Amino acid sequence: MSDTTLPQGLVPLKIISTGIALPDRRVTSAELDVRLNKPAGYVESRSGIIYRHHADDRARDKRVRW
Fold it and tell me: Per its UniProt record, what InterPro entries does this chain match (predicted)?
């Protein structure tokens, strides 16, 4: 990192790590087809997504409190 002078009021920072957390519940596109009353393959053919992770209320509450 170069030694540059920052404008007054700005604090230098550096990202030292990143991460990811996925909720446990996996919902498939096939499940969404049924839930949305669509023909088999409808959601996947339009989104290209096979499954997605959904957080339950406890997981959302935990994230907000963090």
Answer: Thiolase-like
